[in-house]
Design a protein that fits this description.
Blueprint lengths: L2 E4 L32 H37 L20 H16 L9 H10 L8 H14 L7 H18 L4 H20 L2 H13 L4 H22 L15 H33 L8 H15 L8 H8 L5 H20 L7 H22 L7 H17 L2 H12 L5 H18 L7 H5 L26 E5 L4 H8 L10 E5 L5 E6 H4 L21 E2 L4 H11 L3 E5 L7 E6 H6 L1 H18 L11
Parallel strand pairs: 2-3, 5-6
Antiparallel strand pairs: 1-2, 3-4, 6-7
Helix pairs in contact: 1-4, 1-5, 1-6, 1-8, 2-4, 2-10, 4-5, 5-6, 6-7, 6-8, 7-8, 7-15, 9-12, 9-13, 9-14, 9-16, 10-12, 11-13, 12-13, 13-14, 14-15, 14-16, 15-16
């Protein structure tokens, strides 16, 4: 009989090895040893630190450039010192300035790069997901320049979005100049983006979390370490220029009561509904612009007209508006003033952003969320006077919850509010409120304000990050223990007769070749065995021309799958690491696919139990 079966119970460990074991069996191709990090991680970390330093200086340059444009446009003076457009004395002429800025941005977008349109993060996400993290080099200077013009002429955006986009572009550019893989470019891009955020707000921890939640789409040491070092470096550079004070200063908070925590959680949920409404409104306006019968180059000018008109009646809506956030969370404004500011800011920002100009979303969302939280905190404080509601905490929760609900960056939102205010007593309500907002947003809206645009273009954005299922299962637990193999001394004539007999195992496409003592010699394919140009008197051993491709029994299914892909084969002999000549089982592509059955069955059972317990609970709407 040409074939024989061997099981895992047959052991040959310790037996002498024949010198004629096949061609260079010692060079058998096995999966490389997997490590969390390696020397390459250290090199990429060094590159990321360089990108972070550059991003931190770009952040300073952009802030001063915005100051220069603001001073020239609203005050007719040459100065790079930051100035708020709200204090201008131009009267009705204030309507014209944003329009001029919109025209310039439109021209830059048409004749420079269309990629400067938008607030930066969705565009960076799209490059990560579809273009191997390659951002056109011209974006590195066009994005900050267009943002400086848009914001400096009164655009109701924060500087953080363009800085994040520019930092990401710097990282991508360095990755394209150097010899890097797509994964390494993604790390460099994310590091630059995180550095931009940390350099703007002095919030390195939330910057890293934001990169994980929105750009990296993974949580692994090889990516986390470089990004964390980049964010820390950028925050350190910011300390040199700006000091260590909080970006949004507010009076120290008092101790919380148990009842107040529940109210803040409810406020977060209500703000989550507001985040859904805001997101839908922004994209509804963007859709409306699509129907305007003029070239999109002129849309920013139309959106800027709304900015100028609103700015004439509500000057505080002009520009970045960071002071508005500080005033809201510090309880420095009246309820009527907060409501008026937020309504006008929403009109100005949503129309301008929907027109496709260059600007950010973080600061406007913080303003809207802070104002909504302020109003809700005031309301609950009057309805429940003994609950101990602090309107400042309510504003802080609303600020973070709005961004959590709109962007789905729930952990980054909570940590960001803490880092920018340095109020540790706010962490508990922040976490509860942001999580409640995140829950509401996920129930009511399929995509976020960050992902809806690219989802419409057919890009699928990962929203759940979990440990690799294949990386949790060992080959030893899946491989077939009964092995259909061939003896090295069998003749081809006998083997071919067996193959044509249609006996069990004859349909396999590859067979391990063993010695009479059960030691692995190599692997032959069905095609080689049936090659009629080779005489039937030849032995199976004579067909072996290369080292076998094997996998160790203690490797994971992920390593086995990658090994199959790398060598374009569908089955692997499984051998012992301590004795590579001893075969214990065979693993195939089908075995790897079958390992998913248990996971799929568990997921199906979980969904059934949820719908039985809560029959009204469906899936989120397919549209924003």
């Amino acid at each position: 009989m040409a074939n024989h079966e061997t099981s895992r119970s047959s052991t040959t460990e310790g037996l002498p090895i024949s010198p004629a074991m096949g061609p260079a069996l010692e060079q058998a191709l096995v999966p490389p040893h997997s490590t969390f990090i390696d020397r390459r991680t250290v090199i990429i970390s060094g590159y990321c630190i360089l990108v972070a330093i550059a991003s931190a200086f770009v952040a300073q340059i952009l802030v001063h450039l915005i100051g220069l444009v603001t001073n020239v446009a609203f005050y007719g003076r040459i100065s790079t010192e930051f100035a708020s457009p709200a204090n201008n004395t131009l009267g009705a002429w204030v309507i014209v300035i944003p329009v001029v800025g919109g025209i310039i941005v439109g021209l830059m977008a048409r004749y420079g790069s269309k990629a400067i349109r938008g607030h930066g993060i969705p565009e960076a996400m799209e490059q990560v997901l579809t273009n191997q993290s390659r951002i056109p080099p011209r974006i590195t200077f066009l994005k900050p320049l267009s943002a400086a013009i848009a914001i400096g002429t009164g655009g109701p955006f924060g500087a953080e979005g363009p800085i994040i986009a520019t930092g990401g572009a710097l990282g991508s550019l360095l990755g394209q100049l150097l010899h890097t893989t797509a994964t390494e470019r993604k790390i460099l891009l994310s590091a630059g983006a995180a550095a931009g955020m940390a350099a703007t707000f002095g919030s390195p921890v939330s910057a890293v979390i934001l990169a994980v939640e929105l750009l990296l789409f993974e949580y692994r040491p090889r990516s986390l370490i470089p990004v964390a070092l980049a964010a820390s470096t950028a925050a350190g550079v910011r300390v040199f220029f700006e000091g260590t004070g909080p970006v949004f200063a507010m009076p120290d908070l008092s101790q919380l009561s148990g009842g107040a925590i529940g109210i803040y959680t409810l406020i977060g949920a209500l703000v989550g509904i507001g985040a859904v409404i805001v997101t839908r409104a922004v994209y509804a306006i963007e859709d409306a612009f699509e129907h305007i019968p003029i070239h999109w180059m002129w849309w920013p000018a139309i959106g800027s007209l709304a900015v100028g008109v609103v700015g004439y009646f509500a000057p505080r809506t002009l520009g970045v508006g960071y002071v508005n956030i500080s005033d809201i969370i510090s309880n420095h404004l009246t309820l009527n003033a907060v409501i008026f500011l937020c309504v006008m800011k929403f009109i100005s920002w949503s129309v301008s952003l929907g027109s496709g100009t260059s600007g950010g979303t973080l600061a406007p969302l913080f303003t809207l969320g802070g104002g909504l939280g302020f109003a809700l905190g005031t309301l609950f404080g009057q309805l429940l006077p003994h609950a101990g509601i602090d309107v400042r905490i309510a504003s802080l929760v609303g600020m973070a919850a709005m961004f959590a609900g709109a962007s789905r960056a729930v952990l980054a939102s909570a940590v960001f509010a803490f880092e920018t205010t340095l109020q540790p007593l706010g962490l508990l309500p922040l976490l509860a409120g942001c999580t409640a907002s995140y829950l509401v947003s996920c129930l009511l809206m399929r995509h976020s304000i960050m992902t809806e645009k690219i989802a419409r273009r057919g890009v699928r954005v990962p929203v759940e990050y979990s440990a690799d299922f294949l990386d949790q299962i060992l080959v030893n637990d899946v491989g077939a223990k009964t092995i259909v193999s061939l003896k090295a001394e069998d003749t081809l004539g006998g083997v071919r007769g067996w193959l044509h007999s249609n006996a069990p195992g004859t349909s396999h496409q590859g067979f391990p070749v063993l010695t009479s003592t059960g030691l692995l010699v190599g692997v032959v394919t069905r095609r080689d065995l049936l090659n009629l140009s080779i005489a039937e008197t030849k032995t199976v051993r004579d067909l072996i021309r290369r080292p076998p491709v094997v996998v160790y029994s203690d490797c994971t299914l992920r390593e086995a799958a990658d090994h199959m892909v790398n060598h374009n084969i569908g089955r692997l002999p499984v051998v012992l690491r301590e004795n590579p000549k001893q075969i214990t089982s065979i693993i195939t592509r089908s075995d790897i696919l079958s390992s998913y059955r248990e996971r799929i069955a568990e997921s199906r059972d979980a969904k059934k139990s949820i719908h039985v317990a809560v029959p009204w609970l469906g899936t989120a709407s397919s549209k924003v």
